[in-house]
Amino acid sequence: MYLVQFLLPLRDNERRAFPRADFERVRSELTERFGGVTAFLQSPAAGVWKEEGETTHDEVVLFEVMTDTLDRAWWKGYRSELERRFRQEAIVVRALGAESL
To answer: Less packed terminus of the chain by CB within 10 Å, N or C?
Structure first.
């Protein structure tokens, strides 16, 4: 079993908030495909990173999906689609091996 996770920004590079409907769409798509999703939309995390010597801050929300199989091609395409929709150079999608206890 796998736990697939990714972070989406609350705002674009011009600091404009993405509409809540954009996040609801992602939640709906993942529920339809995988039968469920956990979306941490109410408690954004604070992301911080260095870029060209400058510290950048962002608020992000986390999405998680549990799946028995890992369709890498599908996730690669979905990541590209999310990068387009959320106007990001890169969105990290990670898969962790998981065991149901």
So the answer is: C
The per-residue pLDDT for range 15-71, each reduced to its tens digit, is 899 999 999 999 999 999 999 998 887 767 666 666 777 776 678 889 999 999 999
What pTM does this model have? 0.83
Q: How far apart are CA 14 and CA 57, in angstroms?
A: 13
Q: How far apart are CA 1 and CA 29, in angstroms?
A: 20
Count other Cβ atoms within 10 Å, centred on residue 10: 19
Residue 22's nearest CA partner among 64, 84, 91 is 84
Kindly report the CA angle at 81 between 33 and 12, in degrees rounded to 5? 120
